[in-house]
């Protein structure tokens, strides 16, 4: 069973914030939320991860709801180079990491 | 910069051939992974290794084997390639004890089996 649910695709205007949602209603206390993205013809690239608190780095922000059942990845000023497939992953302990199908984000000029 | 390299970007093999896909990482990472990626199915884990000579099955190990004789190198072996193994193969590595730590991916090998 999939641990996360993401929309299949989304569009975002260039320069605007891209907000990518992820539902993970069965997340357990020791599991982290990780985000990766995959630009066409390349391997996936790590973006950010979090446990309970919101996180920010040079690429993005991660907002996790208080009950931890959902999260949102925010790209504050989307550029054409942010067009990619974005994967939300829930993992922890010594579990193997499972990538789903992800959200295909298209940034439109 | 972490570097994960894969032996070939493109490979064409015939049905029944034995195929070796090689992956090398230069960051002294404990964990290494092999995935395949197919349209509409996302990335699926084939095998992973958390130490030299150690291996664990992923979600789709059938038809594949792996070898990790040195820490930096993780090989994926198709004993007898079949057309349904035509796919993009991605190798990754991560450091530390936890296998979920940030993974660094190679560029991928697109394998075609005729």
Low-pLDDT runs of 5+ residues of chain A are none
Extended strand count of chain A: 9
Helix coverage percent of chain A = under 10%
What order do the SSEs of chain B take from the amino end to the carboxyl end, as H and E? EEEEEEEEEEE
User: Number of helix segments of chain A?
Assistant: 0
Task: Explain how this protein is built.
The complex is a heterodimer of chains A (109) and B (114). Helices cover 0% and strands 48% of the residues of chain A. With 109 residues, chain A is mainly β. In chain A, the strands form two sheets. A five-stranded mixed sheet of chain A has the order 1-9-8-3-4, with no helix packed on it. A four-stranded antiparallel sheet of chain A has the order 2-7-6-5, with no helix packed on it. The mean pLDDT of chain A is 92. Chain B has no helices and eleven strands. Chain B has strands at 4-6, 10-13, 19-25, 31-38, 42-49, 56-57, 65-70, 73-78, 87-94, 104-105, 109-113. In chain B, the strands form two sheets. In chain B, strands 2, 4, 5, 6, 9, 10 and 11 form a seven-stranded mixed sheet that branches. Chain B has a four-stranded antiparallel sheet with strand order 1-3-8-7, with no helix packed on it. Chain A binds chain B through residues 32, 34, 36, 41-46, 49, 87, 91-102, and chain B through 4, 33, 35, 40-45, 48, 56, 58-59, 90, 92, 98-100, 102-108.
Write out key terms for the chains shown.
heterodimer; A: 109 residues; mainly beta; five-stranded mixed sheet; B: mainly beta; 11 strands; 0% helix
In short:
The complex is a heterodimer of chains A (109) and B (114). Chain A has strands spanning 9-13, 18-23, 31-38, 45-50, 55-56, 61-64, 70-75, 84-92, 103-108. Chain A is an all-beta fold and 109 residues long.
Q: Which SSEs are present, and which pair or pack?
A:
The complex is a heterodimer of chains A (109) and B (114).
Chain A: E1 9-13, E2 18-23, E3 31-38, E4 45-50, E5 55-56, E6 61-64, E7 70-75, E8 84-92, E9 103-108
Parallel strand pairs in A: 1-9
Antiparallel strand pairs in A: 2-7, 3-4, 3-8, 5-6, 6-7, 8-9
Chain B: E1 4-6, E2 10-13, E3 19-25, E4 31-38, E5 42-49, E6 56-57, E7 65-70, E8 73-78, E9 87-94, E10 104-105, E11 109-113
Parallel strand pairs in B: 2-11
Antiparallel strand pairs in B: 1-3, 3-8, 4-5, 4-9, 5-6, 7-8, 9-10, 9-11
